[in-house]
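To illustrate this point, what follows is a protein record of this kind.

___
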Amino acid sequence: MAQATTSGITTTVLGAVRRILTGSHAAATIAGMSLVIAAGVIHPGEGPGLWAWVRLLIAACGAGIALTMIDASRDPGLGRQDRFGHLVVAGVFLLLAILLSATFTTLAVVFALLVLGLVVLHLNARGPSSLPVFWALLGILIPFWVWSAFNAWDRLLLLLIPLGLVGIISLEHALRADLYGDPVTHRYAAWLGILGMAAVLVITAMANAIDTLWIVVGAILSVLLLVLDMIPARQNRTDSIPTLTLPATALLMLMLTWLVAL
């Protein structure tokens, strides 16, 4: 009996790993781990050491496996017992991620819970706007988690919150440009929010004696993306590049350049 249970757990975990490494899950895995690693590499202060990196990456991998298994448990073809098994093993990996976060700081646990809760909510939100909102929020919360774990907290990191919230509104407008056939109006609204936050970042950096080089680079690149998005040829070929793509790229650049500047 115990051997059969162990075999079932192993099969379930291996199935989750295969889902992570293939299809749409692979892209999400790469993006999520890239966020974790990027936030860790550019965090301010001294290096956290190899052991801290090992714990962080194991926690991230455990969370990824758990969330993939939760997603797999929603397959209508699964029986009740198999679904229960998926959720039990997912709970074990979630607990592992939380316990490893607890070896860092209390804030790391709080942000780990927020990130995990957000992903679970996303798995139950299948609307057209759920994906950009999801990634914008992850772009805010993952740096909070990583920097808290590495004891590199900075109050200016809080500026990611308004940046992310304005970014979500902007991405909603960009999404509507594709969905409802009014590209110009919604496109302008999307870029207004993005460029407004770029200006806020530059002003905040100057007011806090932060090196503005990276912030200015991010702002300039955002303006260039705006120009690319607004040229007549682009407006007449709305199907060539989704309207969401360029504002989302600009938002990501602003987030990354702000983190690097700190």
